[in-house]
Every structure is written in structure tokens, then in C-alpha cells.
Amino acid sequence: MRWKIHSERTLYQDPWVHLASADVELPDGRHLDHRLIRTAAPGAGLAIVTDGRVLLIWRHRFITNTWGWEIPQGSIQPGEEPATAAAREAEEETGWRAQGPITPLLYTQPSPGLMTSEHHIYTATDATHLGKPEDQHESQKVDWVPLADVRRLIAKRDIVAGTTIAALCLIMIG
Fold it and tell me: Domain ranges in the chain?
């Protein structure tokens, strides 16, 4: 059943995020004052997998005050193709340049009940090391993590980012 939006008002807006409140009517006639977040740009990420290992970054997320392994990802620039953005972000965040075809893996909306965020995730099967990451503030370390370790890392909460989990699970099931 489709919810009806009667009105929407801005609570906060800047170049990155737009927080709004919507008067939403449920199918049974009840109304909710529902919050929503519109993000400025879609994101793109790249999982580089070679020899049974995936290139991940170990980073701190200040919002949740947690550390975890993630695939490199970031915003798609205006006019940029998602696959190009994914390769660019991987290179900037890891210091590794993807080689060979960059193949679509998944499109996801991480939290569609709350926000408009969308992620385009790709894979590559090889990479060339260029040196230190350009964006050294993105992570504490970059490493090739065995795919065989992913389940254990998820279980011990060393991988918690939803898009990373979805990508790695798809890669592991082939």
C-alpha cells in the first residue's frame, strides 16, 4: 500500500544533506510526522578481489564511534559515471588502481525508510599499487583481507557497514 505525502517542510539543509519532515497519511487514514533525509549525491564503491582476497580499508566512523573494514566508496561527482567514480574513490582511498574490467555488482538503497542515499557498487579482479593513498585521512590502514575471513569478521563486528556486507556476501556466493 502506498503512503500519501500531504506536505513536507525543511528542518535543515546544506550542500550535503537535506533534513525534512513530511505529513504522511497511512493507508488506514492515520497521519505521521515522518522525518526524511535527502542526500546530495549518490555514492559509488569498488570491491577489488584477487587471489581470494579483497582490498579493504580499516577506518573509524566518528558517528558511531566504531572501527571496521569497508570497501572504498564515496560520492559521484556531477557528470561522472558511477563506475568511474568507484575506480577513482578506490584509488584515492587505497593507493591501488583497478585493472581490467570494472563490473557492476549491486545497486542498493541502504536505508530507504529514512533517506534517499543510493550506492552503485562494482568489482574488479586486479589492481596495481601506486603508492600511499591520496586520501590518507580516510583510513588507518589498507589491506588485502582473505574472503575466507569475511564471515568471522562480520560475526565479531569488524565489518558492520551494510553496503560492504552486501557486496562481500554477493561476491562470496559467486
Answer: 4-39, 43-173
E strand map for 62-140: 66-70, 73-75, 96-99, 103-108, 119-124, 126-129
The secondary element (H helix, E strand) that includes residue 173 is helix 162-173
DSSP tally for the chain: helices H, then strands E: 3, 12
43-173 maps to CATH 3.40.605.10: no
Write out pLDDT tens, residues 72-127.
999 999 999 999 999 999 999 999 999 989 999 999 999 999 999 999 999 999 99
Cβ pair 100, 23 in contact under 8 A:
no
Sign of the torsion angle spanned by Cα atoms 31, 37, 43, 45: negative
Whether the pTM exceeds 0.85: the reply is yes
